[in-house]
Amino acid sequence: MSFLVFLLIKLQRLDNKIPAEGLGVKEYLPPYLDPSIQINDLLTGVCFASAGSGYDPQTTNQTRAIPMLDQLDLFKEYLGKLETNIGEEAAKEIITNNVFLVVASTNDMLFSLPASGLPDDVYDSMLVNLTLSFVQELYKLGARKIGVFSAPPVGCLPVERTLEGGLLRMCAENQNQQAQIFNNMLKGQLPILESNLPQSRIAFVDFYNPLISIINNPEQYGLEVTNRGCCGTGLIEFSYTCNQLVGTCPDDSKYLFFDSGHLSEIGCYIFANLTLPGLVENLF
Ligand SMILES: *[C@@H]1O[C@H](CO)[C@@H](O)[C@H](O)[C@H]1NC(C)=O
Ligand SMILES: *[C@@H]1O[C@H](CO)[C@@H](O)[C@H](O)[C@H]1NC(C)=O
Ligand SMILES: *[C@@H]1O[C@H](CO)[C@@H](O)[C@H](O)[C@H]1NC(C)=O
Question: Alpha-carbon distance 245 to 147, whole Å?
C-alpha cells in the first residue's frame, strides 16, 4: 500500500506534539468507504484515495478509479456525517485545523498524457489547472491547510524502466522531464493560489527530488534495491498481479519499491521522514 499513484486526502488531528510521530495519531488512515468505519475514525482522519485515480477525467475513464470530483462528493458526505455527530461548530473546527494531503498526477502522466496527443508542456499546464481547481474546491469546503504533492520521478518507477528504459532499464528521461515540467509549474502557482485564498496554507510537497536521492544513493538510506520491486520479478507486476507466480523477495525492507509502481513500507517511512518536518513548518 502506498500513496505513490493514488489520490489521498488525509485528514488528521494534529496535537501539539508534532512531528515526533510523523503527523499521525494512528498508524493507518482507514478508507472512508470501509463499511465498518466508526465515528472515531471520522474524527481522526480518513482516506478518500482510489487506486488509479488522477486529476484528468480521462484517466479515471481508463482506470475505472473513483474520479477526483466524486471523491469530493464523498468528502461532502463525510462532512455531513461529522456535523450530524458532533455539531456544525465542532465539525468546522476539525476541518479548519487539520491537514489535507492531495496526491495525484502519476496516472495522468502514464495514461492520459500520451493519449492526449498534446505537447508535454500544454498537457502539464492543463494538469496544473486541474490541480489548482481541485485545491480551490477543497478550500470552498472548509480546508485551510493543504499539502499538494508534486509528481514523482515517473520514469524511475520500475515498470517504466522496464517499458521505456532500454536494455539497461535506465530511468525514462522523457517521463521524468514531463514530471518536472508539471512540478515547476505547480511550484510556481501554489503560492499565488495561497495568496488568493484568505487564511490558507498551501504547501508544495516535493515528491521528486527526495526519491531521486534515495534511488541514486540507496545505501545512504539503508536500502539495497531501488530499480526493481520486491514482488514477483520486480520488473512489471502491479498489485494483484504480484504474487501469482514468483512470490515476493525475502526481505522487503531492502527495497524502495514493493511492486513495480508503488513504494514499499520502508520506502514510505524514509520518504515521510525526509518530508514531514518541512511540511509541518509550511502548514503551521
Ligand atoms: C470515456 O471513454 C469512452 C470510451 O472511450 C468515451 O466514449 C467517453 O466519452 C469517455 N468519457 C469521458 C468523460 O471522457
Ligand atoms: C491554465 O490556466 C491559465 C490561467 O487561467 C491559462 O492561461 C492557461 O491557458 C491554462 N492552460 C491550459 C492548457 O488550459
Ligand atoms: C524515521 O524517523 C524516526 C524518528 O526519528 C526513526 O525512529 C525511524 O527509524 C526513521 N525511519 C526511517 C525508515 O528512516
Answer: 39
Query: What band does 263 get if pLDDT is binned at 50, 70 and 90?
Result: very high
Q: How far is the CA of 55 from the centre of ligand 3 (A)?
A: 32
pLDDT value at residue 41: 86
DSSP 28-91: -PPBTT-TT--HHHHHH--B---TT--SSHHHHHHH-PPPHHHHHHHHHHHHHHHHHHH-HHHH
Contact 23, 277 (CB under 8 A): no
176 with 154: CB under 8 angstroms?
yes
217 CB less than 6 Å from ligand 3?
no
Q: List the alpha helices (DSSP H) in the chain.
A: 39-44, 57-63, 68-86, 88-97, 106-107, 113-116, 120-140, 158-164, 173-196, 209-216, 265-283
Residue with cell 517499458: 163
Ligand 2 pocket: which residues have CB below 6 Å? 122, 125-126, 129
Give the number of the ligand closest to the Cα of residue 62. 1
Q: How far apart are CA 75 and CA 32, in angstroms?
A: 9
How remote is the CA of residue 196 from the centroid of ligand 2, in Å?
17
pTM given for the model:
0.90
Q: Which set of grid coordinates corresponds to residue 278? A: 518541512
- Of 9, 54, 61, whose CA–CA distance to 31 is shortest? 9
pLDDT at 30: 85
Question: Pairing relation of β-strands 145-149 and 99-102?
Answer: parallel
The residues, any chain, with a CB within 8 Å of residue 58's CB and separated by 6 or more, are 111, 112, 115, 116
What distance in Å separates the CA atoms of residue 182 and residue 191, rounded to the nearest whole number? 15
Residues 6+ apart with CB under 8 A from 60: 50, 52, 53, 54, 66, 67, 68
